[in-house]
Amino acid sequence: MKLFTILFTLMMMSCTISNESVINGAWQYVSGNYKSDDSTTNITSDDVKSIKIYSNNHYSLITQFVSSDNFFAHSGLFNLDGESYTESFKIHKNTEKIGKSETFRYELNNNQLIISNDYMREVWEKIEE
Can you give the pTM of this predicted structure? Predict the structure, then answer.
């Protein structure tokens, strides 16, 4: 009976953990493929340095292009629903995006997070503490 009580308690605790918590932590950009018209551009961490941080349902992203002064940044809320991942922009370098959202597919594969849609696929690797 004691074992049943412990297992039941653990099961109930796991049910209360937010789905978003599965990607909590810091992630670094590994690579990405981006489609535009009839061409595809492949970018690696040699081309850009990027960190994405998740905490509960908040995220923040900063990206710097190695070969220039250009950077890209946005932050806001995210939601996981099945295989869908949605970012809702609260802060964005492109101010026209503020208040809007974008939905992707996501997949966790060991210590990698793969985010994709019809025009891009990015691979992120969890930064271990």
Answer: 0.81
